[in-house]
Design a protein that fits this description.
The chain is mainly alpha-helical. The protein contains nine helices and no strands. The radius of gyration is 28 Å and the shape is elongated.
Amino acid sequence: MGYSGQSLIELSKKLTAADIPALMPLVSDRELRTGAQFALASQCEPAIASVREAAAQQRMDFLDASGVMELISGFEGCTLRARERARAAQVELETLRRDYQAKAQQKAKQQADDDARIQRNAVKMTQNPRQAAQELSREEREEIYRRSLTAMGLKEDGPMTPQQKELVQRMYRTMVLGEPGAPSSNTPTK
């Protein structure tokens, strides 16, 4: 609040390029974000590479980095060369943001596809375990087994009670190895 072109001038007199590393983490703080952006922008050319690199490595939000570049490109206290470099960096940041977003969408789609495939295989396994054991690869059966453990809040190498360990071992034998399951206590025996 209250930052302006005058703020850039004042900050450029009080800060140096040596302050850039200390300012970088402050951009992610909601309360300090605007001030940190102005402080970085006040350093003109030296801040450009640091901010661009932080955004490329996802240590700084693309929009925050773009905001710094916009401030630099409009700050008359920066050289013309620095302002032009800031505009070029802003374009580069937008390209990086789009690429990152596209990769994130692709990853989310792949995860959704994997989830749907594992769910379909799990349904096959519950409807006809013998047939599923023949149709599904060991890797697919292990995926179902691991997903079942996760749904139960358990991890293969995590802490378990003796009863949970027995259950997990039985699940592995029946789901992955295809061994016949022991009859449940509710199933009448002949």
